[in-house]
Specification:
This protein is of the alpha/beta class and 536 residues long. The protein is built from 14 helices and 18 strands. The chain binds 2-acetamido-2-deoxy-beta-D-glucopyranose (NAG) (4 copies).
């Protein structure tokens, strides 16, 4: 017994001496049903799927319904109501940002010796340079500051303005014009991994533009040859979406290969997550799928908040599972810090809980409830407590409260492409891959089946809608009438949260920030006294 204890102690000190590399890949607007491991075979995602099966498929995992709030939760470990980020997204010309008093994930990691890089999207404020990534814990940034960009010209059109939004650190990256965004971000990530000095741990935050729509003049862009490969998808929008997603999956393959080539994979934690639910059926001019879940991005239905996500790491003691541990995107901060060997006992001022032990050992999650958000400007609030979910109010006057396809379940799923794809090959090299039989079982288990029986319609603009989300993951039958007391409890819980909320930081856009004043570029306009002359 004594022997045993000594062994454990030695192992622990060794483990803390060599902290794991953390690669966090955030997809944008990816739907629950866009990954192959949730049951659709329409768009192959063999690299993402390979990580999922040989790590943990997070099937009780929630994100915020929209970009900026979700990313703020990831970076701070706090619910958006506690940072003022609860209402909508930030615009490039908006004189506002994630409050500077907040300590961000890379800043915590920096204290543990991590070298932090961000590649891709920021979206947490840029009107003054102090709000941008290099001033908030990252040592490099190749990417953009606003919510989206065109995949080739890298401009963003939003809130009545239009400008270039691509940076290499603080410099405007004019020279990247014409190169496909996903390729740019992949190349930079691979370069960072190749050049990384493995004596320090790496934190790579790869926040892709994919699969967000670009600008209205051509929202869904991918290389022609990639689109041509999806001719079997009749719906042209979905076909182009498939090509965008396929490039994202290819990126995951290249990043994992780079980690393998560098010998870093065995001491890495890789997270893949969406930031919010998919923009389906033409929402945001996009073609994602959350089937069979209800709603889309920026709704509080499961389709808006139940996130496609996975974690992969050799440090996970019980991998190859569909995880039912309840988790929220705010939990990544303490979870990753604990996995990195940090002392997390002082992290009591945040909402996130460390799920690391529960995930790794398949024990009970410390999380029992998730506040999906309270947005008093939109008049909407929602919470899940254990199996119960309450929704009060809705967005878009209810126009996006339905169920959207495609299911994609009728397509043949190619297990061999998962086994033999770039990620499969890397994982086999280090003996961390599962066989085809296990893949089949896990995939079936991760595929959501709606309950049956009649729908009981509920309009959350008129009355609270209330679901047993375990039995009714598709939100078909409101049981508000059957369980008035539990419903009341959840309403009280929302009020308790509401009493701790801070006002939204959201501000109207400042005409001074319009790119037309700044050589057609989105800038940190708040740092300059007078707008430049309009350059045409
Ligand atoms: C950003 O700056 C860092 C530090 O000077 C440098 O190593 C890195 O290459 C720069 N990144 C880009 C994309 O220019
Ligand atoms: C945690 O907080 C206590 C009390 O403020 C402090 O003494 C201790 O150093 C802190 N620990 C860490 C790891 O920050
Ligand atoms: C499945 O993927 C493999 C590549 O690993 C390919 O060779 C094979 O043709 C695919 N099978 C089908 C039925 O598409
Ligand atoms: C939250 O509190 C504010 C201020 O008291 C109030 O106006 C708002 O209606 C409350 N929201 C909810 C969902 O209870």
């Amino acid at each position: 017994m004594l022997h045993f204890i000594i062994l454990i102690t030695c192992f622990t000190s060794l483990a803390t001496a060599k902290r794991p590399h953390i690669i966090f890949i955030l997809a944008d607007d990816l739907g629950f049903n866009d990954v192959g491991f949730h049951g659709s075979g329409q768009i192959p995602t063999p690299n993402i799927d390979a990580l999922a099966y040989s790590g943990l498929i997070l099937n009780n995992y929630y994100v915020n319904p929209i970009c900026t709030p979700s990313r703020s939760a990831l970076m701070t470990g706090k619910y958006p109501i506690h940072t003022g980020m609860q209402h909508g997204v930030l615009y490039g010309a908006e004189p506002s940002g994630l409050p500077l008093c907040e300590k961000l994930l890379p800043q915590y990691l920096q204290e543990l010796g991590y070298v932090n890089h961000i590649v891709g999207k920021w979206h947490l404020g840029s009107w003054k340079k102090v709000y941008t990534p290099l001033y908030r814990g990252f040592v490099s940034h190749l990417g953009y500051w606003t919510g989206h960009q065109d995949y080739y010209d890298h401009t963003a059109m939003e809130a009545g303005s239009w400008g270039l939004d691509m940076r290499k650190n603080m410099s405007v990256a004019y020279e990247l014009h014409g190169e496909y965004s996903t390729d740019i971000f992949t190349k930079e990530s691979v370069r960072l991994i190749k050049n990384h000095d493995p004596s320090s741990p790496l934190f790579l935050y790869l926040a892709h533009v994919a699969v967000h729509s670009g600008n209205p003049y051509e929202p869904l862009r991918a290389p022609d040859e990639e689109i041509a490969g999806f001719g079997f998808i009749e719906n042209y929008e979905r076909r182009k979406f498939a090509a965008m997603l396929s490039k994202l999956d290819e990126s995951v393959g290249q990043v994992v290969k780079a980690l393998g080539d560098k010998g870093m994979l065995e001491n890495s934690i890789i997270v893949f997550s969406t930031d919010n639910g998919g923009a389906a059926a033409g929402f945001n001019l996009n073609a994602a799928s959350n089937y069979p879940l209800r709603g889309v991005k920026n709704t509080y239905w499961e389709g808006g908040v139940k996130g496609a996500g996975l974690i992969w790491s050799p440090l996970i003691q019980k991998p190859f599972r569909v995880s039912r541990q309840m988790m929220h995107i705010a939990d990544w901060l303490p979870t990753l810090l604990e996995a990195a060997g940090a002392d997390t006992t002082n992290l009591t001022h945040i909402d996130g809980l460390s799920i690391w032990k529960a995930l790794s050992e398949n024990s009970e999650s410390p999380r029992e409830e998730i506040l999906h958000n309270i947005d008093d400007i939109l008049g909407i609030s929602s919470i899940t407590v254990n199996n119960w979910k309450l929704i009060q109010g809705t967005t878009y006057k209810g126009a996006w409260d339905n169920w959207y396809g495609p299911s994609g379940r009728w397509y043949q799923y190619n297990i061999s492409s998962v086994e033999n794809g770039p990620v499969g090959v890397q994982l086999k090299k280090i003996n961390k891959f599962v066989d085809g039989k296990v893949i089949k079982t896990l995939r079936a288990e991760a595929t959501i089946q709606c309950g049956d029986g009649p729908k009981i319609h509920c309009n959350p603009l008129k009355t609270p809608c209330f679901y047993n989300i375990l039995k009714d993951p598709c939100e078909l039958k409101s049981v508000a009438k059957e369980y008035p007391l539990v419903l009341k409890e959840l309403q009280v819980r929302i009020q308790q949260f509401n009493a701790t909320a801070v006002p939204p930081i959201k501000k109207p856009v400042d005409p001074k920030g319009d790119p037309k004043n700044w050589n057609r570029v989105y800038t940190n306009f708040g740092d300059f006294e007078n707008p430049n002359l309009i350059v045409l």
